[in-house]
Structure formats: structure tokens, C-alpha cells
Amino acid sequence: MSETIVVKIGTSSLTRPETGQLALSVIATLAEVLCSLRQQGHRVILVSSGAVGVGCGRLGLSDRPKSIGLKQAVAAVGQGRLMRVYDDLFDTLQQPIAQVLLTRHDLVSRHRYLNVLNTFRELLELGVIPIVNENDTVAVDELKFGDNDTLSALVASLVEASWLFLLTDVDRLYSADPRLVPDAQPITLVRDLKELASLQIQTGQQGSRWGTGGMVTKIAAARIATSAGIRVVITEGSQPGNIPRILQGETLGTQFAPQPEPTSARKRWIAYGLIPRGKLYVDDGAKKAIASGGKSLLAAGITEVEGDFDANDAVLLCDRNGQEIARGLVNYTSSELQRIRGQHSREISKILGYEGAETIIHRDNLVLL
Q1: pLDDT at site 20
Q2: Residue 323 to residue 330: CA distance in whole angstroms
């Protein structure tokens, strides 16, 4: 059966750790595997890190740059080199590819979000393998994905993929960092991400000096993708041949089972595509109504408003302890909410002096986390 498969490979798998130079044998094997999947009728997208790492190697830099300006310049050098290598390898295999560079803003705007989706659909229909990366040369901190694990999960969710493979420098997820804890237990299947809460997963934030990701970001990516009904696999990046073996049923790596009832595409856009502009703290009654009954948020349930935002912006909903429980699109500005919080809906027009929506966030624009 033809499926849509998204494969993300990290900098630690693409480059030699001691030099930052490209690991050409790994990239060549990956190209062969992806071409084989295409020949079998699958639709394939590759999310590739490595632009900054390759740029560092090309320029002889010993460490990843920390300033935004230098990082963007190095990424510009590395991205061209990286795509040249991919194009040469895939061209040898007679497989057309396309470069797709994204920033968070491409997913924040609903119009641009749909345009990106249409581009992917057309490329896949043409038999092209899109190669995706964050546009590090122009992205600024507030509009960055943060890491390509998150980007790959958002792309997989966008195209409604069946599989998301996260290729990294470890063979699977463990109960603790196996480099620090020799008897750490391998985890082959995660049915519910809540299972991981009891484990001491000591992964840190960065797997190598050339990359930005770590196991924490991969688990966050799995949360996004599984909510979209996508099966996620963490496996060793130096062995791309594991991908078809896993598709054939071998128990390699760590698999995250998809949610049986995926959230809608619009709600996934609200939950993960948008950048929250503020926070609303709610009382216990509102928390219960939202979590168990799928109710809309009313002004009476809001105890505190934080941030400066406009109507239709995305905000976080938090309980009294500051625990995030949901995200949604608000019907009022932060200044309006400061005036009507804690009030009954029938009082809103009297307080504001004009008719407004009865709900602060309608249930159709509210997503549980």
C-alpha cells in the first residue's frame, strides 16, 4: 500500500563528529533507500539538518556559531553545499528532488500554511522528493521552529503522513542515557507518551556540538505527530537501511503508536503551528469543563490574563498552578479580557459598551494539550 513517509536526519548523522565534514557514505545510502521507497510507490519527504554544521566544516570553524548573524551566514554557505551533494546523489539515481526552506511564519499564517500544503501535494504528485530545512538564513528567534525534529513533525502533520522516521545518533530510546547509566533499559514501543513520565530520561538538549536537537526534542516531535495519527520511529541515522526493515515489521528502534482518534488538521494548526501570544489562567470549574466536556471557555472562568495580544491570536490556557492544559484562538484582546475576566457572559456588553462574542474561546478553536 502506498504511504506518505517523512524522514528526518540530524546533523550528528550527516556529519563526522570530529570534523563536521559530511558523512558521504551515510548520505549515499540514505538516497538509495529513499529512491527505493519512491520506486515502491511511496510518497517521500526528507527533512534534513546540516546546513550550519556543513557551513562550519566548509569555513573551518571549530564550534557552532552562537550569534544570529554569524549562524545565518554560515547556514547560507552550508545549505548550498548540502543541496549540491543531495542533487548529485539523487541525480545519479534519476530521482528528481526539490529544496523547500521554511520558517515558522509559513505555518503561522493560515493562508501561507495552505500554500505550503499545496506545494507539497504538487511535488509529491510529480514524483519529486522534497528536501526540507528551516530557512536559517532569514529566520529570527521568535519565528524559529527551534529544531528540525519539531519541523519534521509539523511537516508530517501537514501532509498527513503515515510514518515519521527520526534518524539520530542512538539506536533507540532508553530509560536513561546509556552513556551515563550502563543498565539503562531499551524502549521498543511507546503506546502513550504518559508512560515516559515515570522514566528518568536524561538526554539533555543537544546531542553534539554541531546540532541543536536531543532526545527531548524528539519526544516533543512524537507528541505532535502521534496526535495527527502518525506512527513515529526513532532509529539510528548511520543505518538508513533500517527504514525499509521497520516498514516490513522488524522491531528496530523505538516506535510511538499514533493516537487512535487524531485531532483535526485545523486544531493541529492551532496547537502546533501558531505561536502563543499570551496566557489565560482559569479556575478549576473551567478547567474541568474544558478537559472533560469539550466546552468553550467563558469569561467567568478566567482568573488572570498575561501578555499583550489581539483578537484571533493564539493563547495558552493554564490552570491555577501554571500547568498548560490547552491552546486556542481568543475572541477578545488582552485589554478587553482584563476588564471582563471573571464576569458572566451577559455582563460583557455592559462592561465593554458593545456587543461581543459570548465565548472567549469557542470549543471549535480550542485544543487540549
Answers
A1: 64
A2: 19
CATH code where residue 329 lies: 2.30.130.10
Q: What is the CA radius of gyration of the chain?
A: 22
The residue written with cell numbers 486544531 in the block is: 267
Report the C-alpha gap between 283 and 162 in whole angstroms: 38
Domain boundary among 216, 236, 267: 267
How does pLDDT run across 71-124, given as a tens digit for each residue?
A: 888 888 989 889 999 999 999 999 999 999 998 888 777 888 889 999 999 999
Asked if residue 235 and residue 332 are part of one domain, the reply reads no
Same domain, yes or no: 263 and 286: no
Report how far residue 9's alpha carbon sits from residue 234's, in angstroms, rounded to the nearest whole number: 10
Same domain, 293 and 257: no
Do residue 181 and residue 328 come from a single domain? no
Who contacts 353 (Cβ-Cβ below 8 Å, separation ≥6)? Answer: none
| C-alpha to C-alpha distance for 328 and 250, rounded to whole angstroms | 40
Among 275, 34, 265, 39, smallest CA distance to 156 is for 265
pLDDT digits (tens, 9 = 90+) for 65-80: 888 788 888 888 989 8
Owning domain of residue 360: 276-368
Say which residue the cell 511537516 belongs to.
155
Paired strand residues for 167: 9, 235
Domain boundary among 246, 267, 288: 267
Beta carbons within 8 Å of 92's beta carbon, 6+ residues apart: none
Rounded to whole angstroms, how far apart are CA atoms 167 and 241? 11
3 state SS of 14: helix
Q: Does 180 lie in the same domain as 233?
A: yes
Closest CA relative to residue 317, chosen from 283, 364, 281, 365: 281
| pLDDT surpasses 90 at 213 | no
- In this structure, the strands spanning 254-256 and 189-190 are parallel
**Alpha carbon distance 31, 254 (integer Å):** 22
pTM: 0.84
Gap between the Cα atoms of 46 and 152, Å rounded? 8
**Total structural domains within the chain:** 2
